[in-house]
Design brief:
Layout: E1 4-8, H1 15-28, E2 32-34, H2 52-65, E3 69-72, H3 76-84, E4 89-92, H4 94-97, H5 100-115, E5 125-129, H6 136-147, E6 153-158, H7 176-184, E7 190-192, H8 194-198, H9 204-213, E8 218-222, H10 240-249, H11 259-295, H12 303-319, H13 324-342
Parallel strand pairs: 1-2, 1-8, 2-3, 3-4, 4-5, 5-6, 6-7, 7-8
Manganese (II) ion binds at residues 10, 196, 222, 232-233.
Length: 343
């Protein structure tokens, strides 16, 4: 079914919470119910998930609602426990995809369980999140390792990257990476996880709409019945009502012929996002320079310094085929705004 909607809380917290949310997700028409049982956390001491007990709740939820439950696995032990409790949809988190040793151990554990006939490959669905860094080959490699055991239903989940560049998102989209993966593995359907990408609820609907425009096959979204009381990822979880609104606003683009243009426009918008974040960063530095000059009784406008900056920029522009006059205008505008921030 397109779009495939996977939704549920970041983490399974209590039996009540799991069952309540699963019922609401079934009502909303969600295809797969998600809830993390083991949570990879940046710092020790944060909520690391309930563990095995929560698998009982997930199993209860899937029996009651009829929609399959999914959870994250990061070790062979997680695989064995999840399968023991009849969970058949497993996701590999971004931090795990990053490590080929772990991915191989998970693939081997799956192969063992299949060999022992605990589960058949046809029953399994695997969701492979992108690695933390923008590396399409590492992502592809993880999918290849997991595919070895014979599982046919594998989705790639784009949740964004840590790039070290300024971005309004928790994880930068860097759309060129999933596009590269799609070119290499056209048979692997692609989902967007707008929750971990955005990091805040306000940006989730827009990213979801963008994914549909780009021809993504579905979404994996975090939903909590009471986001402000969630035990993890509070800022990014939608309420069940917000999910319903989001789903009813999704416009499916069946015509994939325009994907090329949308891809390029998306890359353009993303470049502009970065460009303006950098301009803001430049102004903030100017402000600090302004404070320094005030303290040391220096004039704001220093002609020689500006002439040198402009000359360097124009030399660089000529070498790179940018028009002199346009570059001069951009520099003048930047300089003017910088002076204002210094003052
Ligand atoms: C999650 O989906 O809850 C999760 C931890 O995601 P990621 O691996 O993308 O950070
Ligand atoms: Mn989360």
């Amino acid at each position: 079914m397109r779009p495939l909607i996977i939704a549920g809380p970041c983490a399974a917290e209590t039996r009540e919470q799991v069952l309540t949310t699963a019922r609401l997700m079934a009502d909303a028409g969600v295809s797969i119910f998600r809830a993390g049982v083991w949570k990879p956390r940046t710092e020790p001491g944060a909520f690391e998930g309930v563990g095995e007990e929560a698998l009982l709740w997930l199993d209860e939820a899937q029996s009651e609602t009829g929609i399959p439950a999914a959870t994250e696995v990061a070790t062979p032990e997680h695989v064995r426990l999840a399968l023991k409790h009849h969970i058949r949809t497993l996701w590999i988190g971004a931090r795990t995809t990053t490590n080929p040793f772990l991915v191989q151990q998970i693939a081997d554990a799956l192969a063992e369980e299949i060999k022992a006939k605990t589960v058949s490959p046809a029953e399994l669905t695997l969701l492979v999140k992108n690695p933390v860094s923008p590396d399409a080959r590492l992502w592809k490699g993880a999918i290849e390792r997991l595919r070895e055991c014979g599982v046919k239903t594998i989705y790639a989940v784009h949740r964004g990257f840590q790039t070290g560049q300024p971005t309004p998102y928790r994880n930068a989209p860097t759309w060129s990476v999933p596009f590269a993966l799609r070119l290499e593995m056209p048979d692997i359907p692609l989902l967007l996880d707008p929750s971990h990408m955005a990091g805040k609820t306000e940006l989730v609907p827009d990213l979801s709409a963008q994914a549909m425009s780009l021809g993504y096959d579905g979404l994996m979204i975090e939903v909590h019945h009471s986001p402000s009381n969630a035990w993890s990822d509070r800022e990014q979880q939608l309420t069940p009502d917000e999910l319903k609104t989001l789903m009813s606003n999704l416009v499916l683009r069946e015509d994939k012929t325009d994907t090329g243009l949308s891809n390029l426009r998306r890359q353009l918008d993303e470049t502009d996002d970065t460009l303006f974040m950098l301009i803001l960063q430049r102004m903030q530095i100017s402000k600090q320079i302004g404070a320094y000059k005030r303290e040391h009784n220096l004039p704001v406008l220093q002609e020689k310094r500006y002439a040198k900056i402009l000359k360097n920029r124009l030399d660089w522009a000529r070498k790179n085929g940018l028009d002199d006059e346009v570059v001069q205008r951009i520099m003048e505008a930047l300089h003017e705004e910088s002076c204002r921030w210094q003052l």
